[in-house]
Amino acid sequence: MLNEVFAAAWAVCGDEDEAAEVTRRVLVVGGDAALGARLAAVRVTQYAGMEPGDRDAIVLARALGYKTERIAGILDTTPADVRVRIGRGLRTLRPRRDCVGAASPAHDARVS
């Protein structure tokens, strides 16, 4: 159990110290790898702009490779809702269109 929780937390946050702290917290409450991944994601900037349900669905799918049905069971929702959450979460991760153009030197050349 310890190794699975640590591996899940580390897969999400990529930091040994953070993963160790999350693992400690999860083991205190008797949680599992899914809880470890979800708690670690709260500490990651990449997921900060997401709604919690979207973040949980994305993390369980991406970091742990869980299928829609399994995620639905963990989050106590339907597979259709999980697909909506994942789609919404992935759109949150994409850079906004206006930001992409603004950062591009080629964009500046076309404007002039």
In short:
With 112 residues, this protein is an all-alpha fold. The protein has a single domain (2-111), classed as Up-down Bundle (Butyryl-CoA Dehydrogenase, subunit A, domain 3), CATH 1.20.140.
Plain-language structure description:
Helix content is 74%, strand content 0%. The protein is built from eight helices and no strands. The chain is globular. The chain has a single domain (2-111), classed as Butyryl-CoA Dehydrogenase, subunit A, domain 3 (Up-down Bundle), CATH 1.20.140.
The number of domains is 1
Order of helices and strands: HHHHHHHH
Shape: globular
Estimate what percentage of residues fall within beta strands. Answer: under 5%
The whole-number mean of residue pLDDT values reads 88
Number of helical stretches of at least 4 residues: 8
Number of strands: 0
Low-confidence stretches: none
* Straight-line distance between termini: 60 Å
CATH topology: Butyryl-CoA Dehydrogenase, subunit A, domain 3
Q: Radius of gyration, rounded?
A: 17 Å
The first-level CATH class is given as Mainly Alpha
CATH architecture: Up-down Bundle
In helices, the fraction of residues equals: over 70%
- Structure classification: mainly alpha
Biggest sheet character: none
Task: Spell out the blueprint of helices and strands.
Layout: H1 2-13, H2 16-29, H3 33-41, H4 52-62, H5 68-75, H6 79-93, H7 97-103, H8 105-111
